[in-house]
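User:
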Amino acid sequence: MKKSILIVDDEKAARFGMKLALEKDGYNVMEACDGIDAFQVIKAKSPSLIFLDINMPKINGIQVLEEINQMENPPMIVIVTAYGSERVAVEAMKKGAYDYISKPYEIDELRLIAQHAFEKLALEEENARLRSEIDRLGSRGTIVGESREMNQVFNKIEKVGPSDVTVLVQGESGSGKELAAKEIHKKSSRKNRPMIIMNCAALPETLIESELFGHEKGAFTGATERRLGKFELADKGTIFLDEIGDMSPNTQAKVLRVLQEQSFERLGGTETLRVDVRLISATHKDLLKEIKEGNFREDLYYRLKVVEILLPPLRNRREDIIILAEKFIQYFSEKHRKNVKSISNEAVKVFTRYSWPGNVRELQNVIESAVVMANAETLEISDFPGEISNSDSKLSFDYNLPFRDAKKIVVDTFERDFVSRKLAENNGNISKAAEALGMHRQSLQHKLKELNMR
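Assistant: Predicted structure:
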């Protein structure tokens, strides 16, 4: 933070004495002879702190104070007043001045006020930075992750959210596709309108069209009354169609029409209904493969994926596993009124080696079960299912991965394990661990950051 001070006083000698004292402490000091001159300096130089004399010609200090406080990011102001005018100074503080000093003043008092003012400014700047960081993390909503892969996802959500384009979210089951869709909706202009969610794989084909488009009374056996469909309910909002790859070709054609014309008819009805909806869809299937096999419409595919977001499987972002685990421990401890606070180092090692075929959903379920059954504050390997606890005997990963991705998992796991052991052997002392590893301290710190190790 720059430490610049503006002295506003119509007496040249008063400005000179104050400037001389403050410059000895390293401040960049500027001068203004009256209020009008002060506004020009503020506009050109943006000082952080102003020592403002009350009694000046043209425009007095109180008026200058009021004008400055109307600015977007006003500087901090210390009122300078004559001895015996403390009442006026107190009134100025009620109007937003930080402090006041009376003439004649002691040099040490002047320097101390300036020091405290900049300490307060530094604190406010740090608080603003922290709030910005909290807002940044909070903007990610319920999706958690600090890996490069997830940061790419967050950046895409941030960019696509405010637009109205269709988005196709792809990823394995349990990777968080619905959470991503919800975050897109939250960042859109439709966030105060409904978001309707439907899983296309959860219903038989005969019911999907009724669920999507609604039906009139008597449209089919059992249709005893009119029912509004998901598209109608989502009007002016967002509809999320999960597992759209399981939708029949006949229903795909009707969804395509809604995207193209923003209109449809209820089953058994003749009235054409117009809707304004944003469509977000998701699938774990390879839709290009489904198109080649004749199971999915190519024209619908390209309408769905104006923007495509790929959610990485958990095994490809291993640095996020423990971050997620800690979040789940905190959440389920509160939910189930348990006193579980952490996960043991041995369990951490096992978690980062396990392949997590069920992705984030599997991790969430495993943590909830362990928290419910736990008898201590720390979760141990024995608190988890056998397929996880036994995975420590060998490195587990998906052999369908590309060679480079599989190699990265092996190398990262080895490095994390090797570095962890050396740190443990040296009681967490970075310098000693670096020496044991044959590395420079700075290189080890870089490696710890790269491996997301704390």
